Amino acid sequence: MKKHDQLDQSKRTFLRVGGLTLAALPFAGSLLSGLTSGSEAYAADLPACKETDPAPKALKYVSDAAKAKKPSPRAEATRKDQFCHNCQLYTKLSGSGDSEVGKCLVIPKCAVAHHGWCMSWVKKPGT
User: Fold this and answer.
1) Separation of CA 42 from chain center
2) pLDDT tens readout for residues 61-106
3) When you count CB atoms within 10 A of the terminal residue's CB, does the N or C end of the chain come out lower?
4) Quick count: other Cβ atoms within 10 Å of Cβ 27?
């Protein structure tokens, strides 16, 4: 008889947890959508990256790739087309052309310049 009681108890627990989960689903969706829109609003308000800030400085970030410290001649040939706008870690935020700015996954607290460069550049697929 005890096994039957345990089975009954586990059914009740399952139904209770399942019911609460189903009841919470609509609220979870609205919470998640609120988090996403909040992060997008924050991204639009990012300050421009300063080359002297700790994270950009550690990555040797420059807002104009032409002003970057020249690498060895061998490395320079591969780096000539490396800009933030064609990096896999870059997402455009606003602007167009030279005034375009974006968000970088490696430097998340500030907006990077379209023609910027840093040593963590990764080629964007399809470019």
Assistant:
1) 12
2) 999 888 877 766 666 666 778 899 999 999 999 888 888 999 999 9
3) N
4) 9
The pTM of this model reads 0.60
Q: What is the pLDDT of residue 36?
A: 45
Which residues, 6 or more positions from 53, have their beta carbon under 8 angstroms from its beta carbon?
110
What percentage of the chain carries pLDDT values higher than 70? 66
From the list 81, 105, 79, 80, the residue with the least C-alpha distance to 93 is 105
Q: Which CATH architecture has domain 46-127?
A: Irregular (4.10)
Decide: residue 113, CB within 10 A, 0-12 exposed, 13-18 middle, 19+ buried: buried
Helix (H, G, I), strand (E, B) or coil at 112: strand
